[in-house]
Amino acid sequence: MNYGRYEIIQELGKGAMGVVYQALDPQINRTIALKVLREDRVTSEDFVQRFLKEAMAIGRLSHPNIVTIYDVGRDHGTVYLAMEFLEGRPFNDIIREQTLNPEQIAALAIQLAESLDYAHKKGIVHRDIKPSNIMMTPDGKVKLTDFGIARIEDASMHQQTRAGEILGTPVYMSPEQVMGQQLDGRSDLYSLGVILYELAAGSRPYSGENLASIFRAITLDNPKDPAEINPGIPSGLGKLIMKSLNKKADERFQTGAEMASAFKDFLGSLQTVLRQDKPEPGAKPYTAIISAIVLILLLAAGGYFISSRKNASDGSSAVEQVLELASLRIESMPVGAQVFVDGSFKGKTPQMFDIPLGKHEVRLSLPDYYDWEAQLQLEEKGEIPLFVRLVPTQDQGN
């Protein structure tokens, strides 16, 4: 089946507005994602206009953390969007399976806040920020997707939105969105704050048995600081998240740039504290080997994100540390996994190579298995062993 010139390969998913397919653009032999509006939506001109507005809006966006729109067209009595095909996993899957540390939460906040700041400066409010609309690519980059109910901040679009019409996912809605008020970019930043709260506290800030009780909680209740719920969350991070969730838009972060800057400051102060956390005098230099063993144990328990404290060696300058090398030996079960260090491909397991001392991002990737990622802090020269047991994406009869 074709829509326009695009050849359907397989269905990827369904939503309230339509179906997303993996498709092929035969003119340039490029795999794309094709979003097709549900045919029953075509009976409403309001929905058609909103869909076309989506194409016009996102087509103007060019940002590394926002999905790219290539084309829009009509066929089979409906409307379609041709967009960037993303390899990765939706963030709601990652939330269920993994626990992120404060550094990773802050880094995620920075990427998303900066991408939203870019869209807001173009006059676009996403209106549906939620984990399933965030993709994590294999190289650890986040991509913001589905501006399907994006709203152009101009008079013509105001006339096309019915008064009091509520769009979006209730749990992640801002108070002003719940009440059907006019929205600006601060509503998106609030929704991002809900996601960050969920990552930090391990639960959403608001819940309820039905839509009415959820809406009441969003507009009236004050959630507990995530730092009070999770002792592993620094108070500074908890305060930033709580500011994002302020019910008064004027008291939240006013722009994505302001929000990103605040999380960058937190991340910098956190890394400074970790650098100052030096080993006790006379401590034996077994930290790197112990870190590798801990990684193995955590992986067996189902952990995928691992971080180690960054400790600076007494009396060593930054240049000296860069020049000092360790030999990292990586093995996996099963073998043949691709090894990436700091985004660079190093070969397939088993693999051994020299690497500068310091902090590195390591990722193993193998088809039909979940990607394994970790932050490794290498502090001592010599051979450092790392064994990774990859987890299959589905039951393989083992």
Keyphrases for this structure?
18 strands; 34% helix; 3 domains; 4-stranded antiparallel β-sheet; 6-stranded antiparallel β-sheet; alpha+beta; 25% strand; Phosphorylase Kinase, domain 1; 398 residues; 12 helices; Transferase(Phosphotransferase), domain 1; Immunoglobulin-like
Overview of this structure, please?
The protein has 398 residues and is α+β, with helices and mostly antiparallel strands. Strand 1 and strand 2 (6-14) form a beta hairpin. It has helices spanning 45-59, 91-97, 102-121, 155-160, 175-178, 185-201, 211-220, 226-229, 235-244, 256-276, 287-300, 318-323, and strands at 2-3, 6-14, 18-25, 30-37, 69-75, 78-84, 89-90, 124-125, 134-136, 142-144, 151-152, 325-333, 338-341, 344-348, 351-356, 358-365, 372-378, 382-389. Mean pLDDT is 79; it is low at 152-167 and 277-323. The protein starts with a strand and ends in a 9-residue tail after the last strand. Strands 1-2-3-4-6-5 form a six-stranded antiparallel β-sheet, covered by helices on one side. 34% of the residues lie in helices and 25% in strands.
